[in-house]
Amino acid sequence: MQEVLTDRAFAKLVHETRFGSIRDFRLSEGRPVIDDSTQISVEYKLSGLESGEEVMDIDTFLERPQVRTMLAKFQQVGNGVVECLDVRDGLPFKMSVKRKAHS
To answer: Which domain holds residue 40?
Structure first.
């Protein structure tokens, strides 16, 4: 099973992950494709000092600079595999992308 996500749906997935990573998803023409190989890892702090979840509507979230940069990078890469998208405090933090070398 695979699902091509809209910017809005993928941004919601990132925001809901809070702390952790989204791994092994494809980009097809700049759109994230989630399938059976995609993994989501969530980190939990055991110190009892979890930060409060920020309530933000999706339109406001889509305007955050980190989210705009992530979506722009998806378009720039076009086609490839995101090995790891790190998420910190509900925002995309960094990502590593694997793509074929050009001949």
So the answer is: 2-45+53-98
